[in-house]
Automatic annotation (TrEMBL), chain A:
The lineage of its organism: Bacteria, Pseudomonadati, Bacteroidota, Cytophagia, Cytophagales. This is Xanthine dehydrogenase family protein subunit M. It holds the Pfam family CO_deh_flav_C. Residues 1-223 form the FAD-binding PCMH-type domain. The keyword Cytoplasm does not apply. Transmembrane segments: none annotated. PANTHER family: XANTHINE DEHYDROGENASE FAD-BINDING SUBUNIT XDHB-RELATED (PTHR42659:SF9), XANTHINE DEHYDROGENASE SUBUNIT C-RELATED (PTHR42659).
TrEMBL record, chain B:
The keyword Oxidoreductase applies. This is Xanthine dehydrogenase family protein molybdopterin-binding subunit. It comes from the Bacteria. Residues 31-148 form the Aldehyde oxidase/xanthine dehydrogenase a/b hammerhead domain. Signal peptide: none annotated. It comes from Hymenobacter polaris. One of its GO terms (molecular function) is oxidoreductase activity. Keywords: Molybdenum, Oxidoreductase.
């Protein structure tokens, strides 16, 4: 780990201005990802800008839906009654993630910017196109048992976002509010926030240099109230998903009126599947429908030597999640 | 004391031995007062060393650019193969047991430019703070010309061979009878292949060594070792010192599981560096370095052929194991041992195959050999039971080994039948559906499984010393190590009972080569050996007091024959007339003795009931025990829920019943058994270190990505013990419980998965990927 300086910002304006002065600086919120990366010499910011004093931790109902400040902690959001009642998939995605200690520290904004657990990225001794563009991707012919099968490229097969929350947010049409160095805010749907690896796996989001995530807004909807997040992993707690599904259904008289589907653990980024949703809408809420939707969701899968099981696992996970919300 | 009369068992009934007491060191641990080896931070001028490991698994160091690193603040020195001070002696081969030292491997890094495994130390930075060392290490540039490594025995460029011996003593090929022929003519034949992933010990406390040269000829080392005297001996040899010039201290250990039983390079580097910079040096392995610094349990494939009669009587066992070893050693776990001895089978043949690969030397991991070996034999026995429509316990009873099939010797004690019966009762085994794949609970398939456990009582010896003060307090000492398992506690209990004193009057000291020498805590030997030496040393105290009393005219025991005197609750009294006697304080006061010391050797072999032992008190000769085979036995019972769509396996109920001689403390023993079982459940379901097949470097060397069980993975566990009175194993009749607790665990889980699904997963760990793949296999 390198030596670095530490400054506190009291407002978004102050934070982005500090960042303009030191473009290689990093924002520091919960620190649960950043400090890991620094200790592993994978990130070496000369300055940490502590944004924890910023007034961005509120959770409130607005006309556009539930607005969650970017500095709210995972545990606070996961246990919040408005989230539990109106957006169960979001609550579950948070409470099934990490460990209690990490959830108490980690912020919502930081969660959305966590980095891949791909072992080749996490160990600077390996080549990795995401870390050192052009150095190669040994994962493709190596240990890829928990890497992505959807949206991958010749350059990178990492699940760049390995977590859970963004999967639920992708399913429920969440919108991020970003604030740039000029103090201007813009709104980006989370489904457009993440970038696929293509030939530039080092570029993971549409965030501009110094731009801050300040809030996440999730619209209220019947399918959001009737939603769930199902996570399959190699141990019962404190593990990243091999496959996960965030689904929301609005079923009336046995027929699906609205459907939202996103997959985790299998996509190069949180994987919203509008293909699956198309199959579901207007159809009876039956296992046959769910199976057809699952097949559609995985149609473009490109498995490697060790992760072909994920095609079936993701389908079964999605079917199970749909069964749970339809029940 | 060979010629002295020995008292019979003076442990008062009821005493504190056998009571489920809490750890005597628990308070120090939870309040932070217990000082672990990396916590000696007040040494004058303490400096910090950080190892820089090789990125690649094979190659040659071509250049080192230390300029930027050297210029970092606080850097004291940077060492590479070009400037590291030379060792007086290279490490011995761990196979060479005659050397009695304990190097983990015969290779020492930084002696040449050659790189043989990823993570091999290629440089060490020493600085005034850890942060300065880390900053400098990040700037050090070591260029290595890479070569194509061999990643494992499975690699295309691996060359398999049958070694003459493994671990220096077990033959590469073992034959008992004509197993191949017996198999070929057996009416029932089963052949199955079992795969184990690489796993690592991952104790909570990483390897850490702090070296302090108190004088040019006086070195003190605070080390994370399971054996202070083995480390002392090894360091003395490698550094060119006399043994008395090296003091090794390990007061507390945060787990070891075998990886801390050997002296690895960092242990030797710390004193070398400390001497070179003229300051004490602390060297702690990082968690990733823990994966390339202290050995591993090697990845392996076993093929077991089992021949039986149609009634289920075993006729033949033919075992082959193929595994990875380092470029230097013929190292493999001795899987064949348990397969050869567990059941009454007339023939056995075992073959080890190895391939040298670019990994460090594998090492002992909790029940080395017996743990993976039991997976093969206990799954195959389950297969046989299923094929013959026999209950798995019934099949095991049908093949019950009344004597040790490998020697024909009687067992010193064996209560395995009782373990089966008690375990079945506690578990509710009679509710088991005889057909596999038939029990559903919602989405889940429910299965029951069981397996046998066994672990040998290994030979070992060591001394303890007791000093009893006239005020009724005693100091008891042995240079043993407490891995965190209860060594402090059980020996305090034994000394309290043997001296007839309350536990709070006993101070038990361990973990220091200044104390009497005893062997490592390894191979489940420490509980039996150390407690026996403590017990015998206490006996010697009484012997001395008795000699004083019988010639003291003022003593009620004046003129008594020693053999007519017994010790009861700290009092010497006539066996025939207990009223006639007195306490030690009176004897000592009259003789002006401020204290009395006793010392004794505790050893594998005859216990206090062996005829020769009671005759002449030399109860520790191995020949007194012959001809007996000494093993602990037990059984594990497991219920699993398998989700056939998602491939997840959860252990929902667990019962272990163990018979391991005298259980000194059922509470710490239970902790050992649940610890071993959880360790085994981890190996069954999730633990694996993945080595990149081309680059031979681990891809998940962190505790986020190397999965050990969390609390959520483990149900409430039931543990029970079958009391055994073993008169042969050692003076206290203790067999040890640390390793048997993991033996059979993976098989119990796999057998439960088979019972749940009707399909057998033979590759560990049973991850969702492997479970789903197995469920798709044709029946």
């Amino acid at each position: 780990m390198n030596d670095f300086s530490y400054v506190q910002a009291a407002s978004a304006k102050e934070a982005t201005t500090l960042h303009k002065d030191t473009p290689a600086a990093a924002y520091y919120a919960g620190g649960t990802t950043l400090l890991d990366l620094m200790k592993s010499n994978l990130a070496a910011p000369p300055q940490l800008i502590d944004i924890n004093p910023l007034p961005l931790a509120t959770i409130e109902q607005t006309s556009e839906g539930l607005r969650i400040g970017a500095l709210a902690r995972m545990s606070d959001v996961g246990e919040h009654p408005l989230v539990v009642q109106g957006y169960p998939a979001v609550s579950q995605s948070l409470l099934l993630a990490a460990s209690p200690q990490l959830r108490n520290m980690a912020s919502i904004g930081g969660n959305l910017l966590q980095r891949t657990r791909c072992g080749y990225f996490r160990d600077a001794a390996f080549p990795c196109n995401k870390r050192v563009p052009g150095s190669g991707c040994p994962a493709i012919a190596g240990d890829n048992h928990n890497l992505a099968i959807l949206g991958v490229s010749e350059s990178c097969i990492a699940n760049a976002y390995p977590g859970d929350l963004a999967v639920a947010l992708a399913a429920l049409d969440a919108v991020l509010t970003l604030e740039n160095q000029k103090g201007k805010q813009r709104r980006v749907p989370i489904t457009e926030f993440y970038l696929l690896p293509g030939k530039t796996p080092q570029k993971e989001t549409v965030l501009e240099p110094g731009e801050l995530i300040v809030a996440v807004t999730i619209p209220a909807a019947a399918h959001a109230r009737q939603s769930t997040y199902l996570k399959v992993r190699e141990r019962a707690s404190y593990a990243y998903a091999l496959a996960s599904a965030a689904v929301g259904l609005d079923v009336q008289g046995g027929t699906i009126r609205a459907a939202r589907v996103a997959l985790g653990g299998v996509g190069a980024q949180p994987w919203r599947s509008r293909e699956a949703e198309k199959v579901l809408v207007g159809q009876p809420a039956s296992e046959a429908t769910f199976r057809a939707a699952a097949a559609a969701a995985l149609r473009g899968a490109r498995p490697q030597s060790e992760n072909a099981y994920k095609v079936e696992l993701a389908q079964n996970t999605l079917v199970r999640a749909l069964q749970q919300v339809a029940a | 004391m060979d010629t002295e009369t020995q008292f019979s068992d003076t442990i008062p009934q009821p005493g504190v031995v056998g009571q489920p007491l809490s750890r005597v060191d628990g308070w120090a641990k939870v309040t932070g007062q217990a000082k672990y080896s990396a916590e000696y931070n007040r040494l004058p001028g303490l400096s910090y060393a950080l190892i820089v490991g090789s990125d690649v698994a094979k190659g040659r160091v071509t250049s080192i650019d230390a300029g930027a690193a050297q210029r970092q603040p606080g850097v004291l020195a940077i060492f590479t193969h070009q400037n590291l001070p030379k060792l007086a002696k290279s490490p011995n081969n761990p196979d060479d047991r005659r050397a009695l030292a304990s190097s983990g491997m015969s290779f020492f890094p930084l002696e040449s430019d050659q790189v043989y495994y990823a993570g091999q130390p290629v440089a060490v930075v020493v600085a005034d703070t850890l942060e300065h060392a880390q900053a400098a290490a990040a700037l050090l540039r070591v260029s290595i010309a890479p070569e194509v490594p061999v990643s494992s025995y499975e690699a295309k460029n691996a060359e398999l061979y049958v070694p003459k011996t493994i671990r220096g003593y077990a033959p590469g090929v073992t034959k008992r009878g004509e197993a191949q022929a017996a198999f070929a003519s057996a009416p029932v034949q089963l052949t199955a292949t079992y795969v184990h992933a690489t796993t690592h010990h991952n104790p909570m406390e990483p390897g850490a060594t702090t070296a302090h040269w108190e004088a040019p000829d006086r070195l003190t080392v605070y080390d994370t070792t399971q054996g202070v005297s083995e480390t002392q001996k090894t360091l003395a040899a490698m550094l060119g010192l006399a043994q008395d010039q090296v003091r090794v201290i390990t007061k507390y250990l945060g787990g070891g599981f075998g990886c801390k039983a050997w002296v690895w390079p960092h242990v030797v580097l710390a004193p070398l560096l400390a001497k070179a910079v003229g300051r004490p040096v602390k060297l702690v392995l990082t968690r990733p370095q823990q994966f390339t610094g202290m050995g591993l349990r090697e990845e392996q494939t076993q093929t077991l052929k089992l021949g039986a009669t149609r009634e289920g009587k075993l006729l033949a066992l033919v075992h082959e194991k193929t595994s990875t070893t380092s470029p230097w050693e013929d190292w493999a776990e001795t899987n064949g041992r348990i397969i050869n001895m567990l059941y009454a089978c007339p023939t056995f043949e075992g073959t080890y195959r190895l391939a040298h690969a670019n990994v460090m030397t594998p090492t002992s991991t909790r029940a080395p050999g017996d743990m993976p070996g039991s997976f093969a034999i206990e799954c195959s026995m389950d297969d046989l039971a299923a094929q013959l429509n026999l209950d798995p316990i019934q099949l095991r009873l049908l093949n019950y080994a009344e004597v040790d099939p490998t020697t024909g010797h009687a067992w010193s004690s064996k209560s395995l039948k009782e373990c089966y019966a008690r375990g079945a009762e506690l578990f509710g085994w009679n509710r088991r559906n005889p057909k596999a794949g038939q029990t559903r609970e919602g989405h889940l398939l429910v299965g029951y499984g069981m397996a046998t456990a066994s672990y040998p009582v290994h030979g070992s010896q060591g001394t303890a010393r007791v000093r009893l003060y006239a005020d009724g307090h005693a100091v008891v000492q042995a240079g043993a190590t407490d891995l965190g398992t209860g060594t402090y506690t059980i020996n305090t209990q034994v000394a309290a009972d043997a001296l007839g004193l309350p536990m709070q009057n006993i101070r038990f000291e361990l973990g220091d080569t200044n104390l009497p020498t005893t062997q490592w805590s390894g191979g489940s030997t420490a509980a039996g050996r150390v407690s026996s030496s403590v017990y015998l040393a206490c006996q010697e105290v009484w012997q001395k007091l008795l000699k004083v009393a019988v010639i003291d005219k003022k003593s009620p025991l004046y003129g008594a024959k020693p053999e007519d005197v017994a010790v009861e609750k700290g009092r010497l009294q006539l066996k025939a007339n207990p009223a006639k006697g007195e306490g030690y304080a009176d004897i000592m006061q009259r003789a002006s003795l401020s204290d009395v010391e006793g010392s004794a050797l505790g050893k594998y072999g005859a216990g206090y009931e062996a005829p020769k032992a009671t005759a002449n008190a030399n109860m520790n000769k191995k020949e007194d025990a012959a001809p007996h085979s000494m093993h602990a036995f037990g059984a594990h019972f497991c219920e699993v829920h398998v989700d056939p769509e998602l491939g997840t396996v959860r252990v929902t109920r667990w019962v272990s019943v163990m018979s391991a001689g005298r259980i000194l403390n059922p509470k710490t023993a239970r902790s050992q058994v649940i610890g071993g079982s959880i360790f085994g459940i981890g190996a069954a379901l999730m633990e694996q270190t993945v080595r990149d097949p081309h680059l031979a470097r681990y891809t998940n060397a962190t505790l986020a990505d190397y999965h050990v069980c969390t609390n959520a993975d483990i149900p409430n566990m039931t543990v029970d013990f079958i009391d055994e009175h073993d008169p042969y194993v050692n003076a206290m009749g203790v067999k040890g419980i640390g390793e048997i607790s993991i033996v059979g665990v993976t098989a119990a889980v796999a057998n439960a998965v088979y019972h749940a699904t009707g399909k057998r997963v033979r590759s560990l760990p049973m991850t969702p990927a492997r479970v789903l793949a197995t469920l798709h296999e044709p029946a």
